[in-house]
Amino acid sequence: MKNILVILGLLSALTISANFQNPPFKFPMGSTKNISSNEAVATFAEGCFWHSELVFQSLVGVRDAISGYAGGTDTSPTYEKVASGKTGHAEAVEVHYDPSKISYETLVKAFFASQDPTALNRQGNDVGTEYRSIAFYRNDNEKNIIEAEIKRINKAKMYKNPIVTEVKPIQKFYSAEKYHQEYIQYHPDNGYVSGVSIPEFLEFKEKFKGNFK
Q: Residue 2: what pLDDT?
C-alpha cells in the first residue's frame, strides 16, 4: 500500500518480531460498544490513517478512531481515487471520544506530537496531497484551540521550518474501506506496519505526556 523501501521493512523485521513475542504495548482496538451519552467527534489528517488510528485509539477517553477521507470534493472517495491526488481528500481519522475523560485540547496536542507538521504534502516516505496535515474544526472554540497550539509550537521554536498544517472546517468525513479499519491490529507483520507505523507510534508514546490505555 505505502511507498516505502522494502529494505526498511526487512531491516526492522527482526527487532519488531521480538516485540511481538513480548509486546511493549497493547494494540488498542476501537469499540462500537459503550458509547458515551456525551460523546464528541474530532477529525484529523496527518499522513497514513493506519498510524493516526493507532495514535488516537491509544489514548484514554477515545472509544474509536475510524480511518477515512476528508478535505476534498469527491462525494464517493475510494482509496484508489484518493491516492490519485485528484479528489482533494486526505487520509484522515474520525475520533470518537468522551470529553469527560479527554479534552479536545489534548487531542490537538497529540495530533501535532504524532507527525511532522512542517512537512508539506507528505509524512516520511508517504508523498502526495492525500498525506497532507489538516486539523479540522467544528466550531470556533475548536478552531481557537488549534490555532493556539500552532502559536505555542511556533513560539517554542520546535521546528526550523514553519508549520504547514491546514486549519479548516469539516465538511464531510467518508469512512475508508473495511480492510483499512484496525489494519495494524490485523496485519502486524506487514512491512510498512512493522517498519514504519509501529516505530512511529512507539516514538510518539515515548515523548507524548498523555494518558495511555
A: 54
Please indicate whether residue 48 is annotated as part of the active site: yes
Residue 27 belongs to a domain: no
> Which ranges of 22-87 would DSSP assign to H, the alpha helix?
49-57, 79-83
**pLDDT at residue 145, as a whole number:** 98
Domain count, the chain: 1
Which range of residues forms the domain containing residue 104? Answer: 6-16+36-207
pTM for this predicted structure? 0.88
Average pLDDT of span 83-100: 97
Which residue among the candidates 16, 42, 45, 48 is catalytic per the annotation?
Answer: 48
What's the CATH number where 63 sits? 3.30.1060.10
Taking the C-alpha atoms of residue 190 and residue 4, their distance in angstroms, rounded to an integer, is: 12
Query: How many CA atoms, within 13 angstroms, populate the side-chain half-sphere of residue 52?
Result: 34
